[in-house]
Design a protein that fits this description.
By secondary structure, the chain is of the alpha+beta class. The chain has one domain. The chain is built from 6 helices and 6 strands; from the N terminus they run E-E-H-H-H-H-H-E-E-E-E-H. It has a 3-stranded antiparallel sheet, with no helix packed on it. Helix 4 crosses helix 5. The longest helix has 15 residues. About 25% of the residues are buried.
């Protein structure tokens, strides 16, 4: 999409938290952690996705975007179940899931990525580095973002802006 991704620059970033409540998704969790998270919070996904496949993370992301995101009734039912199961839990992933549901409702597939990605809280005035190939999303709080001059942002959820699922699935590092 040359009209969307106009420059050849990669997009490394440094983000500096400006508020005490800064929360972000930062890269995928280890495979074992993703598997155990789904087993405990959303076992229904096991019926649809073969978790034993060598490329299960890639298959899972394709399932989220290409199947669930096109079947809003099923997506909403799964996110409703997830919300109920996380309701009174206190882990960072579960609190982030509840907060995202309160902000976006139950029809945004991006909420399911809480179960696949590292969730980090960054203290005020602390910073972190994001290399160009690491999937990430700023969830809550204020930050100062410093990056190379590039408009190349490929989005898949949790935004009203342009989503480019095809390109995202092609460039995500599933290793």
């Amino acid at each position: 999409m040359p009209d969307v991704y106009k420059d050849p620059n990669p997009k490394p970033e440094i983000a500096i938290a400006l508020s005490d409540d800064f929360t972000a998704f930062m890269g995928f969790m280890p495979v074992d952690k993703i598997r155990s998270t789904f087993e405990s919070l959303l076992p229904e996904i096991f019926d649809a996705v073969k978790f034993e496949e060598p490329q299960f993370l890639k298959r899972l992301c394709h399932y989220f975007f290409n199947e669930l995101d096109h079947d809003k009734a099923q997506l909403m039912a799964l996110i409703d179940k997830l919300g109920e199961r996380c309701k009174n839990m206190e882990t960072l992933h579960q609190k982030t899931t509840n907060w995202l549901i309160s902000q976006y409702g139950t029809s945004d597939v991006g909420i399911l990525f809480t179960l696949t990605m590292n969730v980090v809280e960054v203290p005020k005035h602390s910073w972190f580095w994001i290399s160009p190939d690491v999937p990430h999303a700023y969830i809550k709080g204020e930050l100062c973002e410093c990056m190379i001059n590039s408009d190349n942002v490929v989005r898949g959820g949790l935004t009203p802006k342009l989503k480019d699922i095809k390109t995202l699935l092609e460039i995500l590092p599933f290793d």
